[in-house]
Structures are given as structure tokens and as C-alpha cells.
Amino acid sequence: MDIVILLGAPGSGKGTVAGALAAKNGNLKHVSSGDLLRGAVAKGTEAGKQAKDFMEAGKLVPDALIATMIKDVVAETTGDVTMLLDGFPRNLAQARILDEMGAPVRSAVLIDVPDGIIQDRIAGRRTCPKCKAGYHVRNLPPKVEGICDACGEKLVIRKDDNPETVKDRLVVYHQQTEPLIAYYKEKGLLRSVDGTTGVDNVAAAFLAAM
Ligand code: AMP
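Above: inputs. Below: predicted complex with adenosine monophosphate.
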């Protein structure tokens, strides 16, 4: 088992790219910290109850809360598998927690997208609450409007995808997550791909870079 970290702003396409790659490669496993947390909130677990308000405000949940969930997934992932870790780490403290776990990080790949494009991408984002597939009303529309291609569920707009919260999430990204670029660069693990070339091209570039 080893780990490839996806770095990039909210809306940069981390989940879409990791999902597309994992669907085609049996030995790639997509792990999204946001999906783990949304699952806990939906189930009403203790962790979910603690996370809910932070998430709705576009703030990071406490490090220990998400780190425990990631530790469990890392521990249960064995064999010839590369984990595409999407959304964790989100700040330097979490990166150090991952290092202290002894997690074998192969590389950290930045999906680079300018802020101006991010706002538009998130405004058009639609998500399947059941299978987690992601869509965009213009860039990546489902075959039937409002319905998930993969499982037929009605698509939703994430609560934290409203313009006000998106602004806050971008501030959090620049302040807390962006320093990870220098952190992994220093370790010689940073790769970067242009995130504006379309899903298939970004996925191919990502695979080559990782
Ligand atoms: P995402 O789906 O990755 O955009 O995450 C949605 C929300 O979940 C974020 O805005 C945070 O509130 C929370 N979250 C996800 N991953 C983390 C993390 N590694 N650390 C703290 N909060 C997180």
C-alpha cells in the first residue's frame, strides 16, 4: 500500500479525477475526507455531530476528529493498493500527523486551477448523495438533468457550495492548505498538473505525474 495525496482548492477537481481513476484501475482506492465526514453527519455518529457545524460554516473540522477517521482507513488498506487521498491533509498539523503514522506517501499532486475558475465550477456543481458521483451543469452534465448517471438518485447541491461559504472555504484553502505545497516540495514529493484541460486530460496527466 502507498498513498498519493491530491492537493488543490475546493472545486479544483480532486474528487472527480480520483473517482475517474479509481473507476478504471482496480488497484487505486479513492478516499475522500469530505465524503467520510458527510457520511458521519448523515449517520448522526458522535464524530458527525461534532463535525456538522464546522462543515456548514466552511471551516476545517478539528484535526484529531478527521485524523482518527483517516488512521482507520489507512490501517484497513493493505496489499497492492495505491490510496488516492483527497482532502487530507488540509493543514501542516495534519501533514505531520500523516508522517507520524508512518504512512508511505509516494507523492503529492497539485491540481492547479485559478481562483476565478473555481467560483464558477462550484456554482454549477451537483453531487449524488448516494454514490458520491460529481457533476457540473455545463462542464460535466448528467445524461438526464438532475439525475445521477451511475445510480439514478436525484442530484443535490452541497450545503457548503453556496457562494458565501465558498468564499470562506477559499480563504481557508489559501491560509491553511496552500502551505502544504511548500511542505511536499521540500520533501521532493510535489508534482503539479494543469487542472483546466478537461476531466480526461487532467486524469491522464495526474496518472503520469503521480
Ligand atoms: P471537501 O468535500 O473536501 O470539500 O470537504 C468538505 C468539508 O469537510 C470541508 O469544508 C471541511 O469542513 C471538512 N473537511 C474535509 N476534510 C477535512 C480535513 N482534512 N480537515 C478538516 N476538515 C475537513
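The first strand starts at residue 2 and ends at 7.
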